[in-house]
Amino acid sequence: MLDSPLPCTACGTANPAQALFCFTCGQPLQASATASNTLTGLLTEDHLLKQCYRILTQIGAGGFGAVYKAADMQFGNRLVAIKEMSQRSLTPQEVAEATEAFKREVLMLADFVILISPASTTILTTVGAGIL
Questions:
Q1: Which of 40, 69, 116, 131 has the CB geometry, 3.0–4.6 Å to 86, for a possible disulfide?
Q2: What does the alpha-carbon distance between residue 132 and residue 119 come to, in Å, rounded to a whole number?
Q3: Which three-class secondary structure state does DSSP give residue 131?
Q4: Nearest CA to 26 among 46, 56, 47, 41?
């Protein structure tokens, strides 16, 4: 028996039953919402994140998140790093503090990257994870 597809509540795309994130818009799927609050490092090769970034490979992962090598499809497949931040076991106050620290890191990296070459930084959010 085949598993029925998981529909994305954000865009309506039918996704494979085992998918954790929508392949079209990157939103966590309803059946995996709990898992996305506790797990990171689950994005797979060729996953399209926010209809902009194609995951090429996972560079590393640890207790606080994962980092991926990706192609920015809006800028000629320019290579970018995507950092995923776990919110596993954090209280609401800790989530707020971690989110602010994550934003500071984005700004610090943006200043550093601009010294090397013009680039952009984007903060994406999903349920249970921050994406840099």
A1: 40
A2: 13
A3: strand
A4: 47
Task: Give the type of residue at 119.
Answer: A
Distance, in Å, from the CA atom of 42 to the CA atom of 35, rounded to the nearest integer, reads: 10
Higher pLDDT, 36 or 69: 69
The Cα–Cα gap between 8 and 1 comes to: 22
Spell out where 43-91 has E strands. 48-49, 53-62, 65-72, 78-86
Q: Give the Cα separation of 40 and 58 in Å (integer).
A: 11
Q: Quick one: DSSP state of residue 88?
A: T
Go through the chain and tell me how many residues it has.
132
Which pair of structure tokens corresponds to residue 41? 């490092």
Whole-structure pTM value? 0.57
Going by pLDDT thresholds of 50, 70 and 90, the confidence category of residue 33 is: very low
Query: How crowded is residue 87: how many other Cβ atoms within 10 Å of its Cβ?
Result: 21
Band (pLDDT 50/70/90 cuts) for residue 46 is very high
Q: Where does the chain have alpha helices with state H? A: 33-38, 92-116
CATH class of 6-131: alpha beta
